[in-house]
Amino acid sequence: MYKLLIVEDDQDMAAALKKLLEKWGFNSVICRDFENILKTFEEEAPHIVLMDINVPAFDGFYWCKKIRELSSVPIIFCSSRDSNLDIVMAINNGGDDYIQKPFDSHVLIAKLQAMVRRTYEYRTVETPLIECNDVFLNLNDTKIYYQNENLELTKNEFKIIKTMMENKGKVVTRDSLMKQLWNDDIYVNENTLSVNINRLRNRLKEIGVHDFVQTKKGIGYIIK
């Protein structure tokens, strides 16, 4: 069953959409926190987002753009606004389709089913994200994302954090990390790895991520 996130501040409309979508086999979730829609998106990990434009705090264009920084999940705008400029803005900010309210329920369902087929059934999509403790690593742009912040990593920082996140809950030895970073015959002082780890930790703190990579004294490092 595909999960669909409904971003709609009209409670009656949201409830009606949820009922309709579940009738057609979608697992529907209504967003309740309009101050941080991105957090709800990360927690629910939906297959499709149905996004209104006129939502509190920031509009749907803003949240669509923020989601696009993390994911390529399909986003369909569903709004009473009908100007060509709104449609253009929706697409330019990362939207995949636009349907105007009031809409025919059969048209909406047909669009959603077509989106599912194109995205999930006609081809295999590999997610470019690794997640640990609400921290996301995007393998495509080598950036770390946490809540509303992001950080562009250097080549060595990316190699370190990717290895650590892929082995969450396991100790990664210093020797293993050294080989990941400097896989050649040139001698590298072990202190160089410590410098890289400390720099990475300090940079993660800048976006609010603390105690992410922990030291196992005499062995290596771990993300718990």
UniProtKB/TrEMBL annotation:
Coiled coil: none annotated. GO terms for biological process: regulation of DNA-templated transcription. Residues 3-116 form the Response regulatory domain. One of its GO terms (cellular component) is cytosol. Gene3D superfamilies: 3.40.50.2300, Winged helix-like DNA-binding domain superfamily/Winged helix DNA-binding domain (1.10.10.10). It holds the Pfam family Response_reg. GO terms for molecular function: phosphorelay response regulator activity; transcription cis-regulatory region binding. InterPro entries: CheY-like_superfamily, OmpR/PhoB-type_DNA-bd, Sig_transdc_resp-reg_receiver, WalR-like, WH-like_DNA-bd_sf. Residues 127-224 form the OmpR/PhoB-type domain. Keywords: DNA-binding, Phosphoprotein, Transcription, Transcription regulation, Two-component regulatory system. SUPFAM superfamilies: CheY-like. Residues 127-224 bind DNA. The modification 4-aspartylphosphate is found at residue 52. This is DNA-binding response regulator. It comes from Mesobacillus zeae.
